[in-house]
Write a structure and sequence with these properties.
single chain, alpha/beta, elongated
Length: 1189
Amino acid sequence: MVYLKSIDAIGFKSFADHTNVQFDKGVTAIVGPNGSGKSNITDAIKWVLGEQSAKSLRGAKMEDIIFSGAEHRKAQNYAEVKLKLDNHSKKLQIDSEELVVTRRLYRSGESEYYLNNDRARLKDIIELFLDSGLGKEAFSIISQGRVDEILNAKPIDRRQIIEESAGVLKYKKRKAESINKLDHTEDNLNRVEDILYDLEGRVEPLKEEAAIAKEYQQLSKQMEQSDVIVTVYDIDQYNEDNQQLDNRLNQLKSQQASKEAQQAQINQLLQKYKGERQQIDYDIEKRNYELVKTTENYEQLSGKLNVLEERKKNQSETNARYEEELENLQSQIQAIQDEKRQNETSLNELKDKQKELNKDIQELESLLYISDEQHDEKLEEIKNNYYTLMSEQSDVNNDIRFLEHTINENEAKKSRLDSRLVEAFNQLKDIQNSINDTDKNYQTAKKAVDKAEHQIAQLEKQLTESKKRQTDYENKLYQAYRYNEKLKSKIDSLATQEEDYTYFFNGVKHILKEKAHELTGIHGAVAEVINVPSKLTQAIETALGTSLQHVIVDTEKDGRQAIQYLKQRGLGRATFLPLNVIKSRQIAVDIKSIAQNLEGFINIASDAVKVASNYQAIIDNLLGNTIIVDNLKHANELARAIRYRTRIVTLEGDIVNPGGSMTGGGARKAKSILFQKDELSTMRHQLEDYQRQTAEFESQFKSQKEKTEQLSEQYFEASQQYNTLKERVHNHELELDRLRTQETHLKNEHEEFEFEKNDGYQSDKSKETLTHKQSRLSEIHQQLNELESDIERYTQLSKEGKASTNQTQQQLHQKQSDLAVIKERIKSQKQVIERLDRQYENSKRQLKDVEEKIKLFNSDEMMGEEAFEKLKYQIQEQQDARQHLNQRLTDIKQRRNDLNETIETNENQLQVCHQDILAIENHYQDIKSKQSKLDVLINHAIDHLNDTYQLTVERARTLYESNEPIESLRKKVKLTKMSIDELGPVNLNAIEQFEELNERYTFLNEQRTDLREAKETLEQIINEMDREVEGRFKNTFHAVQEHFSTVFKQLFGGGQAELRLTEDDYLSAGVDIIVQPPGKKLQHLSLLSGGERALSAIALLFAILKVRSVPFVILDEVEAALDEANVIRYAQYLNELSTETQFIVITHRKGTMEFSDRLYGVTMQESGVSKLVSVNLNTIDEVMKEEQG
């Protein structure tokens, strides 16, 4: 059997030091005074066996079991107890003949368990001793007060003692575990069945959609070959049409080139004709100039003839005047020569006198203060001045006579030429006025040409830029057409899916389709009535989940009608929201306030959604308690702040649920309802923008095209105006050249007349000189009178003389003054000589001219008949030349008129060419526009091949061929498309979704089967355990009941006792104790005396031990209430049972001690510290006396 060999305790309660208690088989008694620590041994055993209640160990908390110190001892930091058990019988399920169980507790609260020094768990300890009779609920340890607990316990609690004896606790524990597993299994089964219920409503509709999708794929596959061939044919046809348009463009280019060549040819002819006209204009100008020159020669010769005739009439008178002029010149020359000789003599005398004065000055300087000749010198100076003035007076008189003669002669000559000069001047003035007018016109025309040239350059630049912009707008326009077509196609596809509720559950889809037909009161799905900002689509989608597909109805009746409709047709399930029932829900004010003040808050979900007012309660009900934040981190922070009281959703669709759980991860790629709705709305807005931009491009293109045509017209008109202005400028240039030539001729003629009139002598200058000479002559007369007066005065002063000391100084000054006068007179004399030389030369030249004039005037060439005839002949020649030039001018002008008509005709042809070129360019632009449209169609067809079939044109042409007519193929494509259209909206993802859903459904169905089987297995195990527990309990109960009655009679010496079940069910019945001590009536346990109660409990214990022995039993003063006779019976029975069970008794009773095999004493010699001592049985009386004392 298993029995307790020893206990080792350190720091446990009052056992401060290491205490070892050895136990033998049989009965071991532990005695000692009250408070010595005997019961601490019982507590130590209970504690090691797994007791967790501090109250059961007589403490307030578990740390109270650690030695807390004494007067002379410090408290321990831990408590440790070791139980050593003998396990040779192997009744304990451990592979060891000796078992050491250790438990250690630290003041920190940390607890440790060991089995044979190996770390273990409390669970391991409990399972080891389970059903061994040493368990927590066993009747093997009866401490103080335990007897009353057993007797006062409820019947159901008393049942545990029998169960421990029956060894069914392990079955009950396993049953509890099985029931727990069964609960989990049922929960899992319910969850799986809920999911399967939901999936069952989706599998069939999705199966139908998958079948439609497969049929769509088959039809698409059947249509692929025909569609590809037709598309390739269309592309080839478009390319052929494009090629034809290219050929037409080439023809237009040829026509344009031909027209441009014709235009260039006409321009070349125009330049040629204009060059000829310019040459004719030059010839006309030249002939005009020759005519003017001839006319001038004619008039000049006629004038000369008139002059000769006039001269011939006045020849004698003219000869006399010339002879007189010749004599005057000769006498003038003689007078000049005489005067020059006199002046040269005077000059030589003055030079000699200058030498004498220089000599006198040198002598006077040596005799500076000897004499003063100032008066004489001054007198001499005055006399010299007088002589000089007299000489000058003579010269001036000669000049005046000469000038008067010359002026008279020139005045006579001038009168003859005045009339001719006036005529020439008037002609020159007229010519100059014409030049000024023509020059003004020329400058105006030149400015106009420059302006026109600048305008043409600007127009040419504008026209180039305009054509470039027109091309850009055209490209943008057809690019916009292409984008619009693509976007419209996508929008139509999405709109079709939306109209057919592609992404809705099958039941919801059918309800929404029938809302305007068989069903009434249907408003639509939640997803249809809300508008969500794009930024919040993911968050709202996640927050609503399947609620997006809940159907809004007017009343519950409408909902019932819709549900009945789905049931009758087997169309699936749907959730309905009656407007008259659903109430709004609002988030708590404090939560909202906290959320709004935290970082990352976006909005309350119900406030972020736009919805009609009549649906607001629905949205508030679904989203009123949901908060939207930007990310998961902020969601966690907000959740903590509001203590996890409401749901929080992030923009990425992660959720923090009430209570703190989080949901999130990667979203599936499949489109959702809100995303489809948002995408469709976005695309429609884009289409509106594209269409508006396309309209703007069309307007811009049209406006730019009109502007280009307008600029072309302006450019042509400006070119015409420029040519006209340029021609006008050229005419003005020719006219200016002609007029300036005439001006030059008139100026030369005028100068000749002037020279002839002046005849080499300036009349006005002569008059001015004469006036000056006459004025000078008056001044000389006045000066001479003054000098005569000065001479008289200084002569008188010289006679008087001076005897002063400064006479010499005055003489020196006089000499110096005389010298200066002499120098001045010499200089003046030289000037006079030079003037006389000039007068001499001038007179000699005039003399020669007069002699030549006399000779020429009297010659035959000037005055003979031959000269007259020659002049008349020359005049006739000039007259003939004038007539010839007039005739030539008439012919040239006629030629110029013919050229003007030719030029005008060519300019008209040039304008026609320009109009034709503009028409060709417009036709060219129209063809380019058609080509752009064809390019759009080609690109659309190529994109169709690429997007639909992932084929290039070349690859498609290689892979697909057919001899069937193209129209037949086109008809087949059309019929197949009609078949596809009859299928309605196709969810191509349905195949994959169905496979995924079906796979999940199959997996969950298998799980359901497994769970059902597991549930059945668990229920079977529980039933088996119930049967086992029932059988064991029944057998044990009846055995204990039988032994209890026997033991009771033995212990009490008679009487009756039995155990009764409170009900017939052995699994749940409680146990009642019925006792009747000898000589007494049947009584309730509470009416028994203390001794009777204790003995009844001992009788029950001994009955149990008879049914099932336990390794050891600890009895803590259970016999304290018995009298000596009963103690002896108790001790004897204890000794009888000790052969099968080890007993450890704590007692004060002598009778018990007498029947013990081993005796230990516990004392407390040191306050608060228990010690274990040996007790001699022979001295037991002394021990008892000490206790009583």
